[in-house]
Design brief:
The chain has 366 residues and is α/β, with parallel strands linked by helices. The protein has ten helices and 13 strands.
Length: 366
């Protein structure tokens, strides 16, 4: 029996690591094809022919079998498609990709830094005050205080002896992620929709694993706005649509209104100027050139209404048109929100940093 050896280097990968890389690549390609597994596999085949990505002992056919064994894809009437586990795998890969790009120190434990009557016990203690939970009493510190006051032989316990553990306020958050699906998101050969979906999926995975009690919804907006289930995010595609930002904000606001008195926020990913809205007759009024005063004013009215309902809008622009930037600054001022002008490669970093910040504090009352 003959064996073929190669020199080990720090960059060498195990078979499992190479498999995970291929699965992550498959996940990303599936996002680009809006969930078309057959097309994603064909692109993998082309990449293999051009760059030799399967030269480490695995063929495309073997990868397909692995994906089936792992329950990531299945064949329905001979056509491969994603399973529920496959969609979850895409979310995990998206989260891993986003967190890999984060700068050291931008992500912490995501808790509110204020102390008080929360549910997460800290190591620090404080003097007991009326209303502190009995289960948070620090017995050793309390006994020590009593012994110091009266000694062991004359033991007695008074209220001033009681010490309790500090607890953290763990804030809850309701978030609506708005994704622009107008035609400009794929215009001039630049793919802006795939990174937007990648960020959305990473947010879903983050919240489901770290903050399971938080609310997250996804809204797409083109000519109109639609609520999209979290499972449908990989299949979102761009259409021949205008940009009805007003409809997106209005739907997001209605969704958040039901969430009661908790932190509420909208993350809006867009690259286009508002160019459409529904008029008083429910007819779509549009101006493909954008920045029509009639459309802009109604959009700003919606941003102002969000502010009144204590909903903070964070706008993430994936384009750098100076006229567009002027509009975003006007919208941000109307809402007293935030605006970020990000490159597609660090879009995820900006969104996640902001999400964590919003969990650490209560929003100001406007």
């Amino acid at each position: 029996m003959n064996f073929l050896y190669s020199k080990w280097t720090p960059q060498s990968l195990t078979d499992e690591q190479r498999l995970q890389q291929l699965i992550s690549l498959f996940s990303y390609l599936t996002l680009q094809t809006s969930g078309d597994v057959e097309q994603a596999l064909e692109w993998l085949r082309q990449l293999a022919g051009q760059y030799g990505i399967f030269t480490e002992g695995m063929t495309l056919e073997e990868l397909i079998e692995k994906l089936k064994e792992m329950g990531i894809i299945e064949e329905i009437e001979g056509v491969p498609s994603l399973t529920a586990k496959g969609i979850q795998q895409i979310r995990k890969d998206a989260l891993k990709e986003i967190f890999t790009s984060l700068k050291k120190g931008t992500i912490g434990s995501h808790d509110n830094p204020a102390t008080g009557k929360g549910i997460e016990r800290l190591s620090e203690t404080k003097k007991y005050t009326f209303g502190d939970a009995p289960q948070n009493i620090d017995i050793p510190s309390t006994m020590t205080n009593a012994f110091k006051r009266e000694g062991i032989e004359n033991f007695s316990l008074e209220e001033d002896d009681l010490e309790v553990y500090e607890t953290e306020h763990l804030s809850s958050c309701a978030t609506v992620l708005m994704i622009d699906i107008s035609h400009s998101m794929i215009l001039y050969g630049e793919d802006r929709i795939t990174p937007a979906k990648q960020v959305a999926l990473a947010l879903v995975e983050l919240i489901r694993t770290k903050f399971p009690k938080d609310y997250l919804a996804c809204v797409t907006f083109g000519d109109d706005a639609s609520l999209v289930s979290l499972a449908e995010i990989p299949f979102i595609s761009v259409g021949p649509y205008h940009t009805n930002t007003k409809a997106g904000l209005e739907l997001a606001r209605h969704l958040l209104r039901r969430k009661g008195n908790i932190n509420k926020q909208i993350f809006m990913i867009t690259d286009g100027k508002p160019s459409a809205m529904y008029d008083e007759n429910k007819m779509l009024y549009k101006n493909p050139f954008g920045l029509d005063p009639r459309i802009i004013n109604k959009t700003l009215d919606e941003a102002t209404q969000c502010r009144r309902e204590k909903i903070v809008i964070s706008t993430f622009m994936v384009a750098h048109d100076p006229v567009l930037i002027d509009f975003v600054e006007e919208l941000t001022q109307a809402n007293k929100g935030r605006a970020y002008y990000s490159h597609l490669n660090n879009l995820g970093e900006f969104i996640f940093v902001d999400y964590i910040r919003n969990r650490r504090k209560k929003f100001n009352t406007f």
